[in-house]
Structure formats: structure tokens, C-alpha cells
Amino acid sequence: MQVTSKNFRTKAAEALLDEDLRAAMGRAEGGFVDTRKRAIDELANFQEYREFARNTKNHVLAHLDGYLTQFENNVMASGGQVHWASNGEEVNRIVLDICRRPGISKIAKGKSMVSEEFALNAGLEAAGLEVVETDLGEYIIQLAEETPSHIIAPAVHKTKQAVTDLFEEHHSQAGYPRVVERLDIVSQARQVLRDHFCTADVGITGGNFLIADTGSIALITNEGNGDLTANLPDIHVVVTSIEKVIPNMQALGGFLRLLGRSATGQIMSVYTTLFNGPRRIDDLDGPREFHVVLVDNGRSEILGSQFQDILRCIKCGACMNHCPVYTSIGGHAYGWVYPGPMGSVLTPLMVGQKNAPDLPYACTLNGRCKTVCPVMIPLPELLREHRNNLVEMGEAKSMQKWGMRLWYQVARKPALYSMMAGLYVLKLNMFARLISAFRRGSFQYIPLLGAWTSTRDFPVPQTTTFQTQWKKRRCHD
Amino acid sequence: MTDSRTRVLGNIRGSLGRTELSPLSDAPPSVPSPRYRTPLPADLAEQFALQHQQVHGTFEEVDSLLAVPQAVHRHLIGQLVPLEAVISPDPELSSLDWAGLDVESRVASREDRSSVTMAFAGIAETGTLVMVSSKQSPVNHHFLPEFNIAILRQSKLVDTMESLWPLIGEHPRTINLITGPSKTADIEQTIVYGAHGPRTLHIILVRDAVS
H/E element holding A442? Predict the structure, then answer.
């Protein structure tokens, strides 16, 4: 996928003015946050599961080559083929090699964020293959020629009306009527996609967890599209990334108790399927070939770095659902595959910090993301690391640099600091009274802070600083 | 792709500061047992039914396998669908007296409106059906038809997923953990049932457990 993260500021500003988007995001935020909370409150030892998940992922990452090799051996033992890809180009080539055979023309595809990293669909289409996304959300954005704006709800930014229009535009030639009601929209998608499932030659899915000691792929969906994609075509290709491996089935249960609850507030998603190789000799259905493409694409470099914790991510989306920045601007402004807090950490690592300089600042450091993360990734700390690195790389803006330098000089001299702060506070308060430019105890304009006050009011401060008041109060005690 | 394999594993080892393959000698952390604020019913059948109904599944109990065809018959009438179904080629299911119903024991196709399957097990904690693929239990039965009826023996209920794994010996091609009918919330975050898989999931629990 093309990286447009450099335009973050412009796109975020545009997003804030998009009424449809704000309505959609408002609806989504409420739903995700409330249902998650209800589900998590019921599981009394949720925290114990978070610690289990963090420790398990850390353990696996510390032995990643060992677990991947074990996984590979077990996939092959069940008759599957394993392909390794260090970057996106290699993945595209591997999948094309599998698909470029006589008689293969259509590919059904289950939702896969990993495959968005290197625009797998575009690569396959360029080779003349038809690719049909089968997750309803992914299908909608495929018709709209857009990209996912949320990692588990890719079409969260689309209104029902927009889907009605899209379906009419794309389905009417085939004789389908215009559908307005939600149930009718879903039924029409079911019918249209059924035709594709039943005629696809290859099914491509992602994988949520790779189980090392059995060589199984765990795939989790609510719609059932992943299973139809995997079971109906003759060839099943799993495109997944190397950090998704876990030791065994026992560990899977621990992760499943966290994933559904964190993602959608579900105790268990509708379909959790474990795939082990191609159809067996006496099986009556299932694919005849089973391929697993293990994708690195920069992950092995994050391993062992100060950002390693991000590799624990199980892609539940809780951090974005709880992020005031994400829920205000949606996912597209972030400019690459992964939005929200986990995306702001991951994107600069995967596309280069210079290509996403604003993402580490798309954060108020409120810490909600860290609080809800099921694998306890310290997201705000990692974003701060990015900011440090940007400053060290000389990427900070000159105003910011001078400002910080000045503050640093003053802050090192407590007497000077408290004098300057006292003066500033007093001046601000006097200024407020002088021009009476405030209502309800707040400024609507402050010199030098025009950009800030253009969309917000600033509270009028007390006449003295906190430190002065604190001293006074202590003297009284 | 030997080159990429060597490169990826080499990069991983480099990042981990190792030169040899990481040994898997240390045991991974062990998984906690779940504790709920509102305790789940102690009886597994009751627990299973409660959880399954919470995810929009329907549920009934019968006294023996022999009563299954009648229960299926009643259910299909209730759904206002033709009295026909594709059943899994399971010897126990095939041996039942399906009089009054047009059943066929074969793989499912997209024309089949209803399917009847035999569950390998059920997980009470989450109300989850466990299907294990074999020549007696093809996979498409669980996904293609609009109306899925699953037969679950009470003796096959387990408390948690952790208790399930030891029961599955040699790994089959697929293990399907199914919790409720298919659904989507992709249109304005509102749930609609019957996205790609069955619109309804009806479970008939056979009370075969020794009391």
C-alpha cells in the first residue's frame, strides 16, 4: 500500500470537517468501548490473562526462530507447504507463482491486514487474476476502491446510505435490486459473494495465530467468510506474519479469552478454525493444496530493538477504539495500513520515520491505549521513543527545538523558572481583565497561541502560580 | 525459497544476538483458569445452553438419539423451510429413522437450505460447538446451508477449551469452534445474522450422560 502518512496533518484536518465520518466514528466508538467493558468486567481475572499473554509473547519472541522452525516442520508433516518471504515483493511473487497455472483465474480472499502492507491484490490483478474480497467490510471498500480504515472494521467510516449506493452501482447490471435495509444489504452481499466462493480457484486468508507444536493456523471470523474461502477452492494460501506464532493449543485458549473481548466485546468470536494441511485422503471436502507464506517485511529488525514490544500486538483494535485522536479523525488520515496508536508505532518502523514524521505526535499521551491493550504494549512510551528518535535525527521543527532549548535553560534555574512562570501567569490574568476578551472564565484568543485558541478556549489562570500557592498553603499548615 | 528462509531466520537470530537455533527447552507460561464475577451454572449442560443462547443460538434437549429426527422435523417446520436436509455421513445419524424428512447423507452444496451435523464436543464456558473434520464430518455442512442443526451428546460437554485439546488425538484437517450463527456488524456497527454462514444455529442436546 502506498504510504501517504506525510500528509497526516492535512488529512486529519479534512477528516475533522467530514460530518459523515464523524457520525460514523462516534457510533463506532460508543459501541466498541461499552461492549468491551461489559465483557471484560465479567472475567474477574482478565488482568491475569493480560500478563499471561504478555509473558507468552515475550517468551515466543525470545525464541522466535525456534518456534517458527517447529511450526514449519509441523505444517509440512501435515502435508502443507511453507514459503518464507523477507519482504512484500517476495510475497507477491510467491503467491503469483502458486496462482499462475492453467485454469486459475479467480481468487477469493478473506480479510488480511498483512496482505495490505504490500498491496497483494493489486499485484495479482496486474497479472490478470480476479480478486474478490469476501469479508463484508472489505468487499464494500473494494467496491469503493478505498483502503481499510480500521483493522477489524474496515468499512467503519461508511454509512449505510453509501453502501446502498455502492451496491446499486455495482450489482444492478447483474439484475439485483437497490437495497436500503441492513438485512437486505447483507443478504444481497451473501448472494453475490456465494457465486464467487463457489467459482474461485484459490482462497487466500490471513491467520490470527500459528500454533507451533501442531502446525495449525487459527483463523477467527464472525461472518464465516474465512472458512468458505479456505474450504471451497482447490488451493488454500495463508498469508501471515512471523510474530503470530504461539507455542501450543493451551496458549490459544488464553489468547482467545482476550481477543474477542478486547476487539468487539465478544466472549468468543463466532468462528475460530484450526487448519492443518490439505484435505486428507478420505476427506470429502477441503482444498487439495495448502500453502503458508510466512512474512517478515521488517519485523525481524524490530525484534531486539527498543520497539520490540509492538510485536506482541494481536490486532484487536482496542487501542484505536479508545484513542481520542483516532476516534476523531478515523483511520485514513494515518496514511498507511495500520491506524491508531499501534499504527503510529508500527508505521514509522515499517515505512521509515521520515515518511511518517507526524504519527508519533498524533497522540495526547492520555494512556488509554496502554490501559486497554490485552498484551500490555506500552504504546505511549513507544510513541515517545519515536519522538526522541525524530529529535535526534534532526527531524524536529525549528520552533519546537528553540522552544525546548529555551525551556531547558530556564527550567535548570528554579529561581528564574518560578519568576518567569509567575510573571507569565500574572500577565495573562491582567491581560484577560484588561481586554475582557474572555467569557465564562476562558480566553478565546491568546497572542502567540492563536493556532491553539482558534478551535478551543483557554481557561483564565489564577493570579499566582501553583508553586507559589503551594508554598503559601504549606506555611499555613 | 531457501534463500529467504535463511535470510529471515538469520535476521531473527541476529536481532536476538544468537548464532544457533533457539532451543525450546524452557516451558512457555501456563494459561490461567477463568474466574467469572457472575459464576456460571455448575451443570455443564445448563452452562452450555445459557452461553449458546446469549450468542443468538437456539437450543433444545431430547432424551435419546432416537428422538432427534422428530426434533429436526419440528425445527424445520418452525423455520418455514422445506422438510429436507443434508446430513453428515455419520453412521449414527444415517442409522436413524428419518421418515417424513427428505435427508441425504453426502457433502453439502450451495443448494442445500438445511444441514444436520454431529458435534465432536461442546465447550460449556463459551457455548461453543466443536466440529472435527473426517470422512464422517465434512466441513462445508457447517457453513454453506442457511439453517444448521447440530446434535451434541451431553457426555461430550467439557468445561473449558483447555479440557478439549487432550480429547483430540491425531490432528484432523480442521477443527471448527463455532459459537452461534454467522453474523456481521460491518454496516454501521449493527449486528445482522446470516452473513456468509448459517442464519440460524439450532443445537439438539442428547441427554446421554449417566446421572
Answer: strand A442-443
